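Working notes for the structural subgroup meeting. M.R. asked for a predicted model of this chain before we commit to crystallization trials. I am recording the input and output together here so anyone reviewing the notebook later can reproduce the run.

Input as submitted:
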Amino acid sequence: MESSSGSRCGAIASHLSIILVTAVQLVFFTFFHEYIAWYTREPDGGIARISVLTDDYFTWLPIPTIASIIVIVASIAMIVYDNYRFERATQIMFNIIGITVAGSLVAIFPFDFSVIPNATAVDVVPTAVRAFFILLTVFYGVTALIIFVRLRRRTARQEP
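Returned structure, recorded in token form:
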């Protein structure tokens, strides 16, 4: 099935946006992670930044770094090689990468929310963050499964 030039341009724009967002994310997590913090106003009017990241963050950091590089390279490959099966297989791979990154965050959990000045929030936020990453992992898994089933169904229809 040939794609029209308009849909091909849209696909290229989509791949380029994925590359851009992933590159920005890679730079932020690698070089600007100190901004993942709790901010408070000082008595002198200044702003204090107290990191919520533990040293385990640097244990986790290679996982999203490698994942980001894979996503950027695969997105470039999808621009160069316009093929439905390749694109769907790559999307499944992206979802598996998402499972790995989010699941490793749950396992390593490089956050220390004890800097939050509200005792209730200190108890609730870690649970909410863990729940978010677990749900994100499930979302990626379901999405990968749906793409896989659709790919298999389309492939089965095209085989003689």
